Amino acid sequence: MKRAPAPPYRGEGPHALWHVSEDPTLARFVPHRAKTAVSDERLVWAIDTRHLPLYWFPRECPRCTFWAGPRTTDGDVARFLGGKSGQRVHVIEEGWLERMANARLYGYRLPPDSFVRDPEVAGYWVSRAAVDPVERLEIDGLIGRHAAAQITLETAPNVWPLWDEIVASTLEFSGIRLRNAQPRVEPSTA
Predict the structure, then answer these.
(1) How far is the C-alpha of 46 from the C-alpha of 16, rounded, in Å?
(2) In what order do the strands lie in the sheet with 17-21?
(3) Which of 11, 52, 135, 173 could form a disulfide bond with 66, CB atoms 3.0-4.6 angstroms apart?
(4) CB contact set of 35 (below 8 Å; sequence gap of 6+)
(5) Where do the DSSP E strands lie in the chain?
(6) What angle is formed at CA 96 by the lines to CA 106 and CA 150, rounded to 5 degrees?
(7) What are the C-alpha distances in Å from 124 to residues 5, 50, 143, 153?
(8) Which residues have CB under 8 Å from 190's CB, separation 6+?
């Protein structure tokens, strides 16, 4: 099932396509097979401005992000979003908070000409051609950036219990780098 896009955030800015990296020296983006890709097709991936906050984290930071969509129930809005259907929530593990506070990222704005919208995941765009960025912006102050955008940033000792609840709910969600999360805590049998 296709996911609905995230709601707008404060200070969102105009639509653009971005690549976010910790590397300030990228000059060209060449199609490649992403490690997590379902397909073997070589692509350049980009994220649109609406979904850019999904990448306001150190690259390897596991995160659970969620928001309401058209099929989200009032009960799930109340339970997970504090009753605010336009709210976005990002959750990281406590052990990543200091790294996030000290992270410096670079947002590369990419020319949209060769990109097409990914048909399955809202906010993602792909190009089959190499592209050169048209602009590079420094992205730091990630915790404050979330606050300024009115995106709730929370921490948890382990994201798995919440993640399991989110994917079983009616919310829209994105889980990124979850392979780097703490191991799942198995219920005690005692």
Answers:
(1) 9
(2) 115-117, 124-127, 44-48, 17-21, 105-110, 135-139
(3) 173
(4) none
(5) 17-21, 44-48, 63-67, 88-93, 105-110, 115-117, 124-127, 135-139, 152-156, 172-176
(6) 65
(7) 10, 10, 23, 22
(8) none
Cβ proximity of 93 and 181 under 8 Å: yes
Cβ atoms of residues 71 and 98 within 8 Å: no
- The rounded distance, in Å, linking the Cα atoms of 91 and 119 is 26
* pLDDT tens-digit series, residues 42-66: 999 999 999 999 999 999 999 999 9
- pLDDT digits 0-9 by tens, 115-154: 999 887 778 999 999 999 999 999 999 999 999 999 999 9
For residue 26, give the 3-state DSSP assignment.
coil
Q: Contact at 8 Å (CB) between 10 and 147?
A: no
